[in-house]
Amino acid sequence: MKASRHLSDFDKMRSSLSPPARLLSFACTVLPCFLFASTLAVAAEQSPPSLELSRPVRSWEFLPVVGMRAGLLGNESGEVEAWVYPLKIFRSFHVTFHVDGRAVPAESLARTLIAHPESATLVYAGDNFSVRETLFVPVHEPGAMILLDVETEQPLEIEAAFVADFQLEWPAALAGTFLNWDESQHAFVFGEERKKFYAIVGSPSGSGARLAYQTNYSSDNESSLRLGVTSKGRASKIIVLAASTQGLADAQANYQHLATSYPDLLRDSAQYYRDYLHRTLNLTVPDSQLQQAYDWSRISTIQGLVANPDLGTGLVAGYRTSGTGQRPGFAWYFGRDSFWTSFALNSIGDFATTRTALEFIAKFQRDDGKIPHEISQGASFVDWFKDYPYGYASADATPLYLIATNDYVSRSGDLDFARQKWDSLWKAYQFMRSTYDAQNFPQNFGFGHGWVEGGPLLPVKTEFYQSGLGLEALRALANLAKLTGKDDVGKDLQAAFDRQKPVFNQSFWSPEKKAFAFALDQQNRRVDELTVLTTVPMWFGVTDEDKSQATIRQLADADLQTDWGTRIISNRSSIYNGSGYHFGSVWPLFTGWASVGEYRYHQPLRAYTNLRSNALLALDGSLGHITEVLSGDYYQPLSTSSPHQIWSAAMVISPILRGMLGLGSDAQSHTVTLTPHIPPDWRSFSLDNLRVGSTIVALSYQRAPGVLTLDVKRTGSDCTFDFNPAFSLRTSVAAVELNGRSLPFRAAASASDQHVAIRFPLTQTTSRLRIRLKNDFGVSLSNKLPTLGSASAGLRVLSETWNSARTQLTLSLSGLAGKTYELYIWNPSQVASVKGANLGAAGQDLAKLVVEFPSADAESYVHQDIVLNFARPR
Fold it and tell me: Deepest in the core among 261, 414, 527, 708, taking most CB within 10 A?
């Protein structure tokens, strides 16, 4: 191969970027992208660069490239299936290189994967040739392209083969399908006897077509075409696929458009994602891996937006190959998935997508008010809601609809939406009321499943999860009533919430387990199974703080916590199975719930561990995406997992913004809230493009020994800023100044930290807040993922307990016997002595705290306390 770098068509598209973006793009190709995370953020306002991730090929790993109307779903060996919704076109697509009298399968030469939001490139390398195969799906078009850039020293021809699988998405089906070769178009034509559904797959250089056949004596299910010989040097080939549900002429028009406009479409799609990052909330953090994961999760989440030609546009749940079937993971519409994802979309300011998702689900609301659970992309071709049991299977989608609508309206200020949907919201509430038992708990049994759909945790009458959602739905609807001028209704609903909250907290509390119970059974007895599902009501703050703190401590130990997230139940449970979908596995969704709940109840060490566990998954599985579910025993996704799951990506965004930053906004009161639990080893972070009505806010946070500085920039009308940063119980606040003038504040302590409450108006374009501190102190822990297939081995922080004089801190830890771990201490000069660990040399205000767990006969988790002694606070 020649030493000079081959400039492919794909590279030429990227060369059209502005000089700063082009430089960053090249740098990310040559060096690990995380080195440039902060640079990317700085350049965002000029011309946001395209994200890029790259690594050696993992042949088994899922590889999705999706747009709103089509998707290429495959693996990193280059095997792909194609969808133009709601049609599946083919499966088992692969290429073969014909060179030097040999037919070399491309998968044997796959070396490197390069992922961008709009495309993915596989680099194949032979002895004297290289081929870059770029899978590309335009954002808004009903089709896809495969670009092949060749550099060779001897004649080479590419053959592309596939198995035709022209069908509608499950559970619909086409009968009488056919496949022909059209020489004039250099393309295969897929059709069916009614002449409504068509697809075209071909290439301007395509020839030598081979059609699948079946006879009495032999058969071959593969079809293929050749793309023309490259004698020597460089050449580019393209394969185009398009489809239509409106007949052959429309399919041909789509095909011609894609074939002639793909350079513009590639540029436009890359720009679409850059613009999306630019217009949603930008965050710059010192944790480079977290930075990458946040940016990619914004992309991964919006890629759940799918436009179906018959049903409309909404959020699907996720993607996986369908193989010989017609179910591409969960690439159809789900109610509760959309609602949980909407919280992340609202947090980053993508209110348009949230409204689209809410309107889509609401239009399928049942006459009695129940909200749908799932809607297949093939639903318009069958009697989905009558003949199939899935449409309204869940009970939790209905309260989540009320909660999600309130979150959207409160943050966006879209009161018109609340008014338009009031009848729908009220019907949903009436359906909920029809399911209440004598204690006013919404029932699962007989009305639809709660979170748990099957397995040994059932049957129950009502889950803590479900009843917590029902409680929060009361408060949500009360607020929506108030916002829409229905004050009497709002007061009645708020009063119902106030009456129900103590009943809820008491009924599910297990004094024996010192934790909230999983559920109440049909005899109203507690089902005292310890579960991460209890953190959902904590997310919304409807649980008592002391009970929440106690439950979180139970959830933090190694029987529930893995290095890659939180198990649904303890591995000590008699019904636990590490592969159990609802009785042992780890869902990033659960881990995100736990993180937000832990931050709300002032447990930042555990919350940050869960946050990072989710974030790191985005960089280690299907690149840029997060899987649906992992084993509870070993770091590995379940074999049936959907590898690009939308709400899993949302559970990177929400724990960062709603959890760690405590970032909220209220468009009606024009208020921004920031309640950060920042890791003590972070000296800074910044964010911009925070939208509060017509106002846009940017802020920069800087922390040094003795002082915290917050710079706030406002564009638009005035608003109010509520700042409530967390500090250790040992820290004292000497003064607070706004633009050089003293400002009043209030300190409020919890069992494990304190928050300094400061409210000030943003009446100036720029404002600077300074908090002067004494005895500032903190402990931090930065976890990492284990090697694929490994069991958990990381450190668990169970609790942090201060004595009344704030001269002693006890850290209760859980770790593997015989293993050594490291934590970090902020401002270590305050520590007089340590028991149970060694304090390393301090450097730049940080020091290592090294903990060695004693060896034992068996490799198992054991508990150990560390005691840090301080001088009396000055």
Answer: 708
Q: What is the predicted pLDDT for the residue at 49?
A: 59
* Whole-number Å distance between alpha carbons of 143 and 244: 9
Q: How far apart are CA 636 and CA 617, in angstroms?
A: 11
Judge residue 12's burial from the number of C-beta atoms within 10 Å of its C-beta, 0-12 exposed, 13-18 middle, 19 or more buried. middle
**Distances in Å between the alpha carbon of 510 and those of 69, 521, 704?**
49, 14, 43
Cα–Cα nearest to 209, from 191, 238, 187, 190: 187
Strands (E), 693-807: 695-704, 707-715, 719-723, 726-727, 732-738, 741-742, 746-749, 754-762, 766-774, 778-780, 796-802
Beta strands in 386-476 (DSSP E): 462-463
- pLDDT, one tens digit per residue, over 114-169 is 999 999 999 999 999 999 999 999 999 999 999 999 999 999 999 999 999 999 99
pLDDT at 13 > cutoff 50: no
- pLDDT above 70: percentage of residues in the chain: 94
For residue 281, give the DSSP letter: -
For 686-713, b where at least 16 C-beta lie within 10 A, e where not — what string? bbbbbbbbebebbbbbebeeeebebebe
- Output the DSSP codes for 143-179: EEEEEEEEEESS-EEEEEEEEEEEEESTT----SEEE
d(CA 153, CA 164): 34
Q: Which two tokens stand for residue 642?
A: 């959907």
Q: What percent of the chain has pLDDT over 90?
A: 91
Number of neighbours of residue 402 by Cβ within 10 angstroms: 28
Of the candidates 113, 219, 221, 120, the one whose C-alpha atom is nearest the C-alpha of residue 166 is: 221
Q: Which pair of tokens denotes residue 757?
A: 């409450």
Strand 102-105 relative to strand 87-99, pairing: antiparallel
27 or 664: which carries more pLDDT confidence? 664
**What is the DSSP secondary-structure string of 620-663?**
TSSTT---S-B-SSSSSB-TT--SEEHHHHHHHHHIIIIIIS-E
| Neighbouring residues of 217: CB distance < 8 A, sequence distance ≥ 6 | none
Question: Which positions ≥6 away from 5 have C-beta within 8 Å?
Answer: none
pLDDT at position 445 is: 82
pLDDT of residue 841: 75
Total H helices, total E strands in the chain: 18, 53
Could you give the CA distance from residue 232 to residue 532 in angstroms, rounded to a whole number? Answer: 60
**pLDDT grade for 871, boundaries at 50, 70 and 90:** confident
Rg of the chain over Cα atoms, rounded to whole angstroms, equals 28
Instruction: Compute how many other C-beta atoms are within 10 angstroms of the C-beta atom of residue 817.
Output: 15
What count of other Cβ atoms lies within 10 Å of the Cβ of residue 784? 10
pLDDT at 27 over 70: no
- Closest to 672 (Cα-Cα) out of 653, 654, 693, 655: 693
